[in-house]
Amino acid sequence: MIKKERLEKKNLNIVNSFIKFFQLEVLSGFILIGISITAIIIANSHLSHIYHEFVHLPIKIGVGQFQIKNSLSHWVNDALMGLFFLLVGLEIKREFLIGELSSIEKAILPAISALGGMVFPAIIYFFVARNNPELIRGWAIPMATDIAFALGILSITGKKFPFSLKVFLTAFATIDDIGGVIVIALFYTEKIVLISLLLMAITFGLMIFCNKINIKNPAVYFILGTFLWFFTLKSGIHATVAGILTAFAVPAKGSIDIKKFFKEIGVLLKRIRKKIVDIDNSLIIAKKTYNEIETIEEVCHKFQPPLLRIEHTLHPWVTFFILPLFAFVNAGIEIPKNFSEILFSKISIGIFLGLFFGKQIGIFLFTLLAVKFKLANLPKGISWKMVYGISILGGIGFTMSMFINSLAFKNNLQFINQAKVGILFSTLIASIYGIIFLRFLKDDKKV
To answer: Which listed residue, 170, 272, 301, 369, has the most CB atoms within 10 A of its CB?
Structure first.
């Protein structure tokens, strides 16, 4: 009976944690929408010159001979987005350890769904751009799903969907992120500098060693992670990969185990009880038990894994500063007189068809096949129409798509702008269609 109660309590804690995560992601989605619209308006107003001066503002960081000078947009895309990928890596690691990807049974359906949602968009884009090798470099742009945007759209449909649907959407979008990181590392790597690659490997090895010898101080991993980012940047591999590697090295266990935690907390609580007999004033209690309360905070700090501490610290910074700044810097497209030419360019069409149609077909078809061939079961409470609804939302690929765009067409502003139009247009259409479909959805489990 006690074991059952503990299990129920553990499940409740996981649910509460996800609800908080969902609420934050939804808010992030709304912020990204607002910032993107603002950037487009400013870029096409009489303030456009100020916008471009801001985006290309030169910033120098370093000491003496060791300096890196880049524009603000480069710092955002190469450095700050490294922190975004660190957060993504921490969330992925947590999901594999205790979340919706922690077992084969849980992970197999979202993994298969995500695979379909990556393969079909890439094939469709490749087919559209097949006659031009330069355009083909953008094949990975429509592969990504933006979790924050998608959850934000799901929340404003006005329907109360089962919790399992939100978890399923988050799970396949998380695996989508893994695919995006792998694509960046393998296909958008420039010329490799071996000495920097060696220093990168040594730094990462040192981080793993620190984990193995139970060094739990997050500052150690932040400092080593900064060096890892610098060596990755110089190696030719995109610097954001350092964020994922750092997340992999961060310890997922606290300094003390659960038995020692309860023992120390128990002793401290007994001391507090002895000091506050018949006292009913919180100020007096706080003063008399200050040392014990401070020690309880230290014990709780030791018990909480560095992975969760870093994740909780980073989340608001990424949500309210890094991603909005990324959106503002990257979404500001100047709409020229020949806008129709850009809208109907091969890049824009390929991305739109890939994201809007490719995602729908890939996610829904692979989910259907996985269930029909008994490779996985559909989560409880989810209908096939709901699966199709979130397949539509899979076509919202803003953040990762914009990021891959900056890598694919690095030195071609014309192609970058065409891709941005395709990303924004498909995001807009997928959002509108998703809202309409899910808003008027009548549940039906039959296919």
So the answer is: 170
